[in-house]
Amino acid sequence: MCDGVRIGVGRNGRRGGRDFLARHGETVFNAARRLQGDHAHTPLTRAGFAQADEMGRALRASLGPGPALTLWASPTGRALQTLAVIAEHLELDWHGARTDARLVEIGMGSWGGRYYADVVAEVGPVIDPITHALKIAPDGEEYVAIAERVSGWLADTADDMGDRLVVMHGISSRVMRGVMTGLPIDPSMGSPLAPGLPQGSVVMIEGGHETVVHLGGGHAPV
Fold it and tell me: Does the reported pTM lie above 0.70?
């Protein structure tokens, strides 16, 4: 279980450096109101590229050109496209970015790729009215599984003492932010869950505390 995993801790008791977590820009699936989930490649829209530009400008204003920043991303096309734009603003080499499948979005099973309206017509609302999180598809990924995989990534990279940028997704980033800031487990989800942020948002987490660097202009919370 996620509350049994010690995460984000380096040899000195706490991971050194700051984590900048970015939510990718709007995609063609988002614009069409389709459930995206862990689809490997759903391209950014023009609005999505504009959101990536805004994140890049905000990070450059905060960090300056060529910052000492390790680049990480979900291996999905939309995350890598977003990272490419941000990296250009920061004058960093996108080709040096690292990817990890544990950073992908929630798996939506047989709901993945379908229109929200069609699924809602069959099963009722798919966004929880209290948490504003996606409900779990009958054959989809449980939130506790997301917490376990992002906690595993955090534990495996805990000895990285520098600043890093991580581009990922709406739901998986909410779980990771919840884990990193020590939020309690949401009993309805079985995992920590930070508040949703619009697409194109960036937060900084340092020492377990979160600060919004840039609030995006995309859809929120999913």
Answer: yes
In this predicted structure, what is the pLDDT of residue 11?
34
Distance between CA atoms of residues 13 and 110, nearest Å? 42
How distant, in Å, are the alpha carbons of 74, 86, 118, 176 from that of 58?
21, 9, 37, 22
Under a CB-based contact definition with an 8 Å cutoff, are residues 51 and 219 in contact?
Answer: no
Q: In the predicted model, is pLDDT for residue 170 greater than 60?
A: yes
CA distance linking residue 216 with residue 214, whole number of Å: 6
Nearest-angstrom CA–CA distance, 113 and 35: 5
Instruction: Look at residue 36 and tell me whether its pLDDT is greater than 90.
Output: no
Across the range 144-155, mean pLDDT stands at 97
Q: Which residue has the tokens 């809602």?
A: 120
Give counts: helices (H), strands (E), the chain. Answer: 6, 6
Q: Which CATH homologous superfamily contains domain 2-214?
A: Phosphoglycerate mutase-like (3.40.50.1240)
In this predicted structure, what is the pLDDT of residue 14?
A: 60
d(CA 113, CA 58): 32
Q: Where are the domains of the chain?
A: 2-214
**What proportion of the chain, given as a percentage, has pLDDT over 90?**
82
Classified as helix, coil or strand, 186 is: strand
Checking DSSP bridges between strand 19-23 and strand 202-206, what pairing results, if any?
A: antiparallel
